[in-house]
Amino acid sequence: TELPYLFEFGVPLTPDQQELSATMIRYWTTFAATGDPNGSDVPRWRRYRGTGDVQGLDLDSAGGVGPVDVAAESHCAFWASLA
Fold first, then answer.
1. What is the 3-state secondary structure of 35-53?
2. How far is CA 1 from CA 4, 7, 28, 57, 58, in A?
3. Which of 1, 25, 62, 79 could bond 58 through an S-S bridge, CB–CB 3.0 to 4.6 Å?
């Protein structure tokens, strides 16, 4: 699902999508050049230490770019209780 944000496929992006696209491209190019996705003009990408350190890449209207707790969002505690 991220490919249209990184490569031009002839599908027009909304202004919100264009902003996310620019952020994602900055992360990738900075990472390729330095081995670290953090750079100027992008939200800090924290080092992964646990499920709350996953970088969410979403439109501003849907939460934006920043750390999310994927275990909580995926209800892992509930699913683990069924095992």
1. CCCCCCCCCCCCCCCCHHH
2. 7, 11, 16, 11, 11
3. 62
